[in-house]
Amino acid sequence: MSVRFDAGSVDAVVLDIEGTTSATGFVVDVLYPYARERFGKLLATRGEQPEVARAVAQVRELAGEPGADAARVEKILGEWVDADRKATPLKTLQGILWAEGFARGELVSHFYPEVIGVLRGWAAEGLRLYVYSSGSVAAQRAWFTYSPEGSLLDLVGGFHDTENAGPKQEPESYRSISAAVGVPAGRTLFLSDRLGELDAARDAGWLTVGVRRAGEPYFAAGVGGHPQAAAFDEISLARSVR
Q1: Nearest-CA neighbor of 148 among 101, 97, 104, 105?
Q2: pLDDT tens-digit profile of 31-45?
Q3: Shortest CA distance to 95 belongs to which of 39, 149, 25?
């Protein structure tokens, strides 16, 4: 399932995280419980902090419960976790807790074995790397800061989430990222395991590769008509000779 692009045809690569660079199981089995156990304390002790207060207000609005107290907000967050809902305020609050967990050394992010080496190679060849994940920017930065091989922040030119870019299955979100990073859509490659995201990126004019890793939740669904690869080292992005 190797995929090869013509030399010099790609200037930027935008990365999904769950199921693409990293195992969804790690997020579900490690990160989700870590945050869930700490929502109550966060809401009780830091509810007045601007970022927390804004997220809580968004939870109340999305749930249609403007009078929800902290206990009810915590219950709503738990319900959204169970449903794997990609709600922006949930991701914001998870991101706050995850970033703190990474910084304290309680968490270390996960990357599939070949990913870090391939990313370093692409960056060394002059490709610009970005991240677009449903997880908050704070969580993304922590993920790339506290990897098993140390900080990878120097590889990434920018982070995008559902708050600063928009929903991942809407073409306009990808157009927004193109405008932000200044790379033409037709020279931007998106890597993801989800068909709906790949379709949206393609509709925005991006190049796409569906990353299909055995054992991931969306493996059986396939990637439609998009090129596909089982790992990053099956994707050839040879740069033109200068």
Answers
A1: 105
A2: 999 999 999 999 999
A3: 39
